[in-house]
Amino acid sequence: MDSELDRIKSTITISLGTKNKLRKLKGSQSYEDLINYLIRLRNQTIHYGDNTIELQEFQRVKGLYSLEEFKILFSYNKFNSSQNFIFDISIDTIRENGEIISQREFLRKLMMKLNKGRSEAYYTVYFKLLERAIQIEIEPLFRHNGRFEDYFSWEEELKILNLPKKSFEEDIKEKLREFKLGVLND
């Protein structure tokens, strides 16, 4: 059953490259079926919300950071393009001149060396580790300019690197909120 609208001939002007891509994508289905599929896909993408679950398995990677006589072995999530990606930095082992020391002992010595409080020393190291993970995974020349507490600067840097908003929320904003509250995760 054709409506009057269906009987009207119509053409859509597209480039030859786009037409070839469409032909390859459509395979054995009709152009109309392909277009309907693309419209459904677009609607699903736009209405991505609470009714969709993303199963994402993050691969943990180890990194090493040197801070004077300290060597910090840390782990983080290997970068992927998920909207839910976060680095999730955690310290595994700290060595001082080759000997393993506790995080508590490391923080005590670092506080004295930097002449800073416990919380500030901890978060200074955390943001150095995050910066190192970004350098390893995404941008070797990444250098955060400004203090670690300056989350506007971090937000701009992460936008430039095209990292998801979730990474900014969890890796930066959440840690800065904990820093202001004096919360330590050791």
Number of helices: 7
Please give the alpha-carbon distance between the first and last residues: 70 Å
Shape: elongated
**Major β-sheet, in short?**
4 strands, antiparallel
H/E element sequence: HHHEEEEHHHH
User: Unreliable segments (pLDDT under 50, ≥5 consecutive)?
Assistant: none
Content-based structural category: alpha+beta
Q: What is the spatial order of strands in the main beta sheet?
A: 1-2-3-4
The quaternary organization reads as: single chain
Percent strand equals: 5-15%
Mean pLDDT: 78
Helix content: 40-55%
Radius of gyration: 25 Å
Number of strands: 4
**Number of domain units:** 2
Protein described:
The chain is of the alpha+beta class and 186 residues long. It has 7 helices and 4 strands. The protein has helices spanning 4-7, 16-26, 31-46, 103-114, 118-137, 151-160, 165-181, and strands at residues 60-67, 70-77, 90-96, 99-101. The chain has a 4-stranded antiparallel sheet. A hairpin with a 2-residue loop joins β1 and β2 (70-77).
